[in-house]
Amino acid sequence: MVYGALPPEINSGRMYAGPGQDRCWPPPARGMDWPSS
């Protein structure tokens, strides 16, 4: 994953919060690309 291409709030780990990950951007393959799933 290229964290440098993601917003700072996602770099901080907000993407692991759950619903928040859909707030600003569409996950490409949430079930496969993001460990939070």
Automatic annotation (TrEMBL):
This is PPE family domain protein. It comes from the Bacteria. InterPro entries: PPE_sf. Residues 12-37 are annotated as: Disordered.
